[in-house]
Amino acid sequence: MADDLFHIAGKAFSSRLFLGTAGYPNQQVFLDSLTASGAEVVTVSIRRVDMAGGAEGLLDLLQGRAWLLPNTAGCATVKDAVLTAQLAREALDTSWIKLELIGDRETLYPDVEQLVTAAAQLVDDGFTVLPYCTDDPIVCRRLADVGCAAVMPLGAPIGTGLGILNPYNIETICARSTVPVILDAGIGTASDAALAMELGCDAVLLNTAVSKSTDPVRMAGAMGHAVAGGRLARLAGRIPKRLRAEASSPELGLIGG
Amino acid sequence: MITVNGKARDHADGLDLAALLGEAGVQVGGRGIAVAINGTVVPRARWAERAVADGDAIEIVKVLQGG
Lengths: 257, 67
Description:
The complex is a heterodimer. Chain A is α/β, with parallel strands linked by helices. Chain A has helices spanning about 25-35, 60, 80-90, 110-125, 135-145, 165-175, 190-200, 210, 215-235, and strands at about 5-10, 10-15, 15-20, 40-50, 65-70, 95-100, 130-135, 150-155, 180-185, 205. Chain A has a single domain, classed as TIM Barrel (Alpha-Beta Barrel), CATH 3.20.20.70. Helices cover about 40% and strands about 15% of the residues of chain A. In chain A, α5 (about 135-145) runs parallel beside α6. Chain A is globular, with a radius of gyration of 20 Å.
């Protein structure tokens, strides 16, 4: 919808789907998935040059087709996350950073204490900070208070595809947040993405659900539709849930009465 | 000795960062590369003038796929 733009730090987007760039079967499938998804923002990582892994030319491949959101994935200390963000700013000439500060390599859960500290430092350093965080309304409020441009609570642990494990928390975060809420991590299929939007999220960030699906291009299209559909449903206002049936057809004029 | 991406190595006297990057096979003109020395980012414009000093810990990074 052209009249339903989504803003972060003054930049407007018409798609509310952010797409990760990792794990696709090949580069063409990634490019086709990006097109099919309609996503305007893609995430990238920052790694040592000798940790190549066949990813040469990602920027050439994208050719400016998407707004780049570098991450600090894998960082476990404030120092490493801040330096990674600064390196990303130099490499990509962007002040935007998806701040990830992992507290545990097994669960990949955010270390919220260090996350708030790093977020505050990066905001002071001029960054537009989008922190990946737990689905905790208080943590989200702290992050907004230190100046983050959005908050990105997890639906479920990274890569699990378990969907939104605590819809009540996500709905509460959305109802109370003073900054945009982007559901990040845990999406498994299209209905999860639609639910995130129905709960009030401003956008959804996902990667594995598309890249590791059987047909990534088709799933990317499904995610684009799901996010748009969920957004429309949110704006339209769903009916309240009832415990008893209520006929939708007229109850008068039945034959045989 | 200097450390480049966690690995210790020797360096020639007067070696500058641009030359070091060249040795590492990095396309100096390309986008998507960044360098830090001892925890501080060295802007691209200063690569040619920043000489490498004994004990420097250098990080050379690039943009890769990510989620």
